[in-house]
């Protein structure tokens, strides 16, 4: 955050010079005109980047089932989000009944992008299923995604440190293929990866035994906190690995429940100040809503808090 703020301030001073000292920038040369245009474009680009908050569509899984994906995407855009992260793709059912091409057109219609998606990896990890991985690569390319993300590990794949080492090897192999296709692979955590095995954890094994150039991390901040870990320390100890965040808050009365960002017990202001400058994509995710909370009011509340308070 400090990097972003400092850059904006510097760009602001440059623009102030443009507007307050016209005699120095009087378009007496093409070079000066180009510099002025570049300054304006730079500030615009940074401001746009600040506002490009995403949402993991799993947040609205019930609404997708009830209303259909077209309705949900329109409401996500109306709530102020600029990106979506997908989940649940299969070659048979596509993205909630839409082909990748159809889903891509739906996103474009609402001025949304999808830089990343969650794709089931259990079969790939267990047996190296190249056909499934190929279908994921094709789908990700069709909708303009950069990251294919491992969202979850089935219980049978994570019973011991040796299991996690096998997972790391399988992810490395998949990541080579993904990278050869011009995409990137990432891994999304829950809290079970932080279970202790003597002097290590499953997550530590994944960090140490996956190739840092090929395998990036999407850090679910809530689950890290639930496991008693400090996300800032994790990022400081592993620079360059954490390219994406899942942001959801912890209910003050029941840590097992989520709540709107800024309404829970996690100190997101401090975390964003210390670490947000190095993250490529930030996604709001909420796995449950309070009984009387309208889901669309909830996601709008979280969007407003992140963009107007945390990313300022």
Automatic annotation (TrEMBL):
The keyword Signal applies. InterPro entries: IolE/XylAMocC-like (IPR050312), TAT_signal (IPR006311), Xyl_isomerase-like_sf (IPR036237), Xyl_isomerase-like_TIM-brl (IPR013022). Pfam families: AP_endonuc_2. Residues 1-21 form the signal peptide. It comes from the Bacteria. GO terms for molecular function: isomerase activity. The keyword Ligase does not apply. Keywords: Isomerase, Signal. Residues 73-281 form the Xylose isomerase-like TIM barrel domain. PANTHER family: HYDROXYPYRUVATE ISOMERASE (PTHR12110), INOSOSE DEHYDRATASE (PTHR12110:SF41). This is Sugar phosphate isomerase/epimerase.
